Each structure stands twice: as structure tokens, then as C-alpha cells.
Amino acid sequence: MSMHDDILKVLLTQEELREKVKELGRQITQDYQGKNLMIVTVLKGAVVFLADLMREIDVPAEIDFMVVSSYGAGTKSSGVVKIVKDLDVPLKDKDLLIVEDILDSGMTLSYLKELLEGREPRSIRIATLLDKPARRKVDLKADYIGYSVPDEFVVGYGLDYDEKYRNLPYIGILKPEVYSV
Ligand code: IMP
Ligand code: MG
């Protein structure tokens, strides 16, 4: 019994992810020369991407984490989030890079970006590994995008289904029967 048996199709292989993360790291390294980079990651989905990406960024950078939870019941993101764990330091003079796993409706991130903008960092940008533009509900674009993906539910490389499959080393689509049990 292996978790790989639950995967219908591999969308992005480990090699593809590694290459893309390297490319994003190179680009971010160029763009943040002489800046005061602070990477902000929202737990938990983006931690795998973050762990790989930060080691491809060759400028001194701070890292901090936020934990947020959506208000209200249901699986659809309402966009209004409660801060469960906030950042530890003020953002004045920092060049903020928000690292996300996937940009879906964009509701959570647009709320968060506005909140952080209010703290007057020097600049604020978004890096997302995956983008699902078809699902966007707000006018929000990422500055760095790994891959655009079709409107299908994906797991692995940090992304979960019911909190599981985050440890899958590639990104894939689950077999339908996994959802129905
Ligand atoms: P939204 O952009 O506010 O709708 O929420 C984005 C969040 O929804 C991501 O950070 C993921 O936690 C989750 N999410 C959206 N699409 C997927 C998917 O295909 N697989 C796993 N999680 C997803
Ligand atoms: Mg999730």
C-alpha cells in the first residue's frame, strides 16, 4: 500500500518542479539585489515550495510565517480571514515577498496583501508556485508564477486534500474514489 497508488495522473514531476523553482530563484535574486528581502509564507501549503525556493535565492533574506483561518463554515473561501499567528516584526523598510502554493480565487491573498500593505513595507510582491486563473474572483496577479494549471484539484508538494498528501514529492491529481470514501 503506497500513497502513490491514490494518484490518477502526475501533473508536474519532481524534475519539472526543481527546474522551475531554480528559474524563479534566479529571477528573484536578480530583482532583489540591494533590497531588504523578507519572505512571508502562509502555513501550511507553501512550506515545501518555500523550503526549495529560499535556497535558490542568493540575497540575504528574512523568513517569517503567518497562520490564518477563514471565517465561516463551508469549503469556499470567504476572503475574510482571522490572523491566528501574525508576523513577529514590523514591516517598515522591508521588501516583502509573499510566497504561496496556489492562487485560486485569490480572496485570501488579496485580503492579506491589503492588510500587510497597511503596515507600510517598502514594497510587496507575490510569488506563487501554481496559478489557477480561471478561478479568480478578485483582481489579483502574482508577480512570480511557476505554472498555470487548469481548474482541477491538485495535491502534493505541500498541497493537501483533507490535510493529507502534502508529502507527495510531485504534483498530481487524485483518483476519484479517494474523494468518495
Ligand atoms: P483562495 O485563493 O483564497 O481561493 O485560496 C487558496 C488556497 O486554497 C490555497 O492556499 C490552498 O490551500 C487551497 N487550494 C486551492 N486550490 C487547491 C488545489 O487544487 N489543491 C489543494 N489546495 C487548493
Ligand atoms: Mg489547503
Low-confidence stretches: none
| Main beta sheet | 6 strands, mixed
- The level of helicity is 10-25%
> What small molecules does the structure contain?
inosinic acid, magnesium ion
Structural class determined from secondary elements: alpha/beta
Question: Care to count the β-strands?
Answer: 8
Q: Kindly, what is the distance between the CA atoms of the first and last residues, rounded to a whole number of angstroms?
A: 16 Å
Relative strand content: 25-35%
What's the average pLDDT? 94
What characteristic shape results from the CA principal axes? globular
Q: How big is the Rg?
A: 16 Å
Determine the number of helices (DSSP H or I, runs of at least 4 residues).
4
Strand/helix succession = EHEHEEEHEEEH
Strand order of the largest sheet: 4-3-2-5-6-7
Secondary-structure map:
Layout: E1 7-12, H1 14-31, E2 37-42, H2 47-54, E3 62-70, E4 81-85, E5 95-103, H3 107-117, E6 123-131, E7 144-148, E8 171-174, H4 176-180
Bound molecules: inosinic acid and magnesium ion.
Inosinic acid (IMP) binds near residues 101, 109, 153, 154 and 159.
Q: What would the keywords be for this entry?
A:
single chain, 181 residues, alpha/beta, 6-stranded mixed beta sheet, globular, binds inosinic acid, binds magnesium ion
Question: Can you put this structure into words, describing what you see?
Answer:
With 181 residues, the chain is α/β, with parallel strands linked by helices. Helices cover 23% and strands 29% of the residues. The chain has four helices and eight strands; from the N terminus they run βαβαβββαβββα. The strands form two sheets. The chain has a six-stranded mixed sheet with strand order 4-3-2-5-6-7. Strands 1-8 form a two-stranded antiparallel sheet. Helix 1 crosses helix 2 (47-54). The longest helix is centred in the N-terminal third of the chain and has 18 residues, at 14-31. The radius of gyration is 16 Å and the shape is globular. The model has no long low-confidence stretch (mean pLDDT 94). It binds inosinic acid (IMP) and magnesium ion. Magnesium ion is lined by residues 45, 160. The site of magnesium ion (MG) has 2 residues, from loops.
